[in-house]
Write a structure and sequence with these properties.
Length: 210
């Protein structure tokens, strides 16, 4: 899975001179949480709802309403945006985007093709891809199995599954000498898969409906 397959294409952007109050209005109306900041086709930074809220005067301020409105009317996105924006290429693996967001503690990344902004990828997009990759909407059985961490162990385990079918499989943990796998199986005689796995000598750790 590539970033371009899950990103929002042609995201809404703002110019650096956009007033903070206007950016707040846009985020509220569109239901977004971040806006790339672009000037003459070049990405300058990114501004989030938190950046904008942090720029608002404290409730404890001694400024009058008129003074606050005047100051906010002069405050622009350029003054509160994060720069440079942490970005990712459109053809990078989706898992790289997930890792980058986790490491940087951010919820979204502008997506680039060279110097051109082509999309934005968020934590929500990664979760959608995760749900799809693990086949969570396909039902069946979710089976956790510990297999020896040796060549051929996965293929041997898979031979016990038919006539049911494996629609997803993921490594849940690396244990001493073992790998803990979580797989989803659907299809014919799916209820018999745990028994066939055990009969084949596999260590079934957990079984639950999909």
């Amino acid at each position: 899975m590539l970033v371009r397959d899950w990103m929002t294409q042609d995201p809404l952007t703002v110019a650096p001179e956009t007033p903070v109050l206007e950016a707040i209005r846009i985020l509220k109306e569109k239901g977004f949480r971040r806006l790339p900041v672009v000037k003459e086709g070049r990405l300058l930074g990114i501004v989030t709802d938190k950046d904008l809220k942090d720029a608002m005067p404290s409730k404890a301020t001694t400024l009058s309403v008129w003074e606050m409105n005047y100051l906010l009317s002069k405050l622009t996105v350029e003054e509160v945006m994060a720069r440079p924006a942490v970005t990712i290429g459109a053809d990078e693996p989706l898992e790289k985007a997930a890792l980058l967001m986790e490491e940087k503690k951010i919820g979204g990344l502008p997506v680039m093709e060279g110097e051109r902004l082509v999309g934005i990828i968020t934590v929500t997009d990664v979760l959608r891809a995760f749900i799809e990759a693990l086949g969570l909407r396909l039902g069946g059985l979710r089976i956790t199995v510990d297999i020896p961490d040796v060549p051929g162990a996965l293929a041997q385990m898979a031979r016990a599954v038919p006539p049911a079918n494996i629609v997803s499989i993921a490594t849940a943990a690396h244990l001493p000498g073992y790998q803990r796998l979580v797989m989803r199986v659907v299809g014919e005689d799916v209820e018999g898969v745990p028994g066939r796995l055990r009969a084949a000598g596999e260590k079934v750790v957990d079984v639950r409906p999909g």
